[in-house]
Amino acid sequence: MTKIDALAALHARYPVLQPGHVWLAGAGPGDPGLLTLDALAGLAQAEVIVHDALVSEQVLALAGAQAELEYAGKRGGRPSAQQADICRRLIELARQNKKVLRLKGGDPCMFGRGGEEAIALAKAGISYRIVPGVTAGIAALSAASIPATMRGINHAIIFATGHADGDFDWAALARTGQPIVIYMAMRNIEHIVAELRRGGMAPDTPAAVILAATTPEQQVLTSELGAVSAEVRRLGFVLPGLVVFGGIVRMREQLLRLAAEIEVAR
Ligand SMILES: C[S@@+](CC[C@H](N)C(=O)[O-])C[C@H]1O[C@@H](n2cnc3c(N)ncnc32)[C@H](O)[C@@H]1O
Predict the structure, then answer these.
(1) pLDDT tens string 160-179
(2) Which pLDDT does position 76 carry in this prediction?
(3) Which of 104, 83, 81, 100 is closest to 91 using CA atoms?
(4) Which domain holds residue 104?
(5) Minimum CA distance residue for ligand 1 atom 12
(6) Deepest in the core among 120, 134, 187, 245, taking most CB within 10 A?
(7) Which strand ranges, in their side-by-side order, compose the sheet holding 100-104?
(8) Of 134, 151, 176, which residue sits at a domain end?
(9) Averaged pLDDT of the chain
(10) Both 122 and 143 in a single domain?
């Protein structure tokens, strides 16, 4: 059975990627099991796949034999692609009547510049479709046994980027009292911690650092707001990581303990 037949069996009417069209798709956080069936349909049909650094090798291995892979990432020690060049390349490929898959880590529009690429394609008169993906913020929490919401702990959850502008009001986020999940926080952690404290977040607020979530390299470290900067420095910046602040982090210990008790009882 070919990949596309297997997909058709699962997904009776899989969407067709037309020549001259671009799909802006999310590849999920790393584990190929978290790819959506529509992203898999894109991988099976695409003639060109323009992918980011955070799309895992295991996901790229699912590309059809006809697909050419083009790297357009912004990390990993390779030269960084400029956003305008990426948009130009997508338009160029679509105008060559190729079936184009633009594949990004997580969800294409969560801190992924999918919105800008959609605008550039629309302005150029190119048909496109946005294929949602499982964003790292949600996947990393669940993979670390930290529930995103927990009755009695939080009524909301905040997703933020550590690359926010210098005048971004972190203190206002702290004042909501709700958990905060921060993408790209690692290099800016001292500033973020100082601003959250200015907003009244207590130094003993539970914190977690989740690296390479859902991949074989996954690491989870729990700490507190007052100590997390030192932990981040110790971990370094090689693996992609998220930092989480809030009471939901405490649930990890309880869930892991309960899971261990089941194993012991077996
Ligand atoms: C440019 S953002 C892209 C986010 C992506 N669009 C998403 O929805 O997950 C890249 C950041 O996402 C986070 N990230 C992506 N994959 C991750 C993973 N597997 N584990 C932990 N953090 C991850 C890191 O903070 C990384 O620096």
Answers:
(1) 999 987 789 999 999 999 99
(2) 47
(3) 100
(4) 3-134
(5) 183
(6) 245
(7) 68-71, 48-51, 100-104, 22-26, 128-131
(8) 134
(9) 93
(10) no
Same-domain status, 54 and 92: yes
Ligand 1 pocket, CB under 6 A: 29-30, 54, 104-107, 110-112, 135-136, 140, 183-184, 210, 212-215, 240-242
107 Cα to the center of ligand 1, angstroms: 9
CA distance 44 to 70: 16
Q: Which residues of 112-147 are buried (b: 16+ CB within 10 A; e: fewer)?
A: bbbeebbebbeebebebebbbbbbbbbbbbebbbbb
Q: Is 201 annotated as catalytic?
A: no
In this structure, what token pair is assigned to residue 14?
């899989």
- Rg of the chain over Cα atoms, rounded to whole angstroms, equals 20
Closest by CA to 90, choosing from 110, 113, 107, is 113
Calculate the dihedral angle through the C-alpha atoms of 187, 83, 137, 156, rounding to the nearest 10 degrees.
Answer: 100
β strands within the chain, DSSP E: 22-26, 48-51, 68-71, 100-104, 128-131, 158-161, 180-183, 206-211, 219-224, 241-245
Provide the number of structural domains found in the chain: 2
- Look up 31 and say whether it is catalytic: no
pTM comes to: 0.93
Do residues 152 and 76 both lie within one domain? no
Distance 2 CA to ligand 1 centre (A): 31
| pLDDT for 4 | 61
Catalytic residue among 3, 150, 184, 251: 184
Q: Give the residue, out of 57, 107, 111, with the most ligand 1 atoms within 8 A of its beta carbon, to mutate for a pocket test.
A: 111
3-state class (DSSP) for residue 158: strand
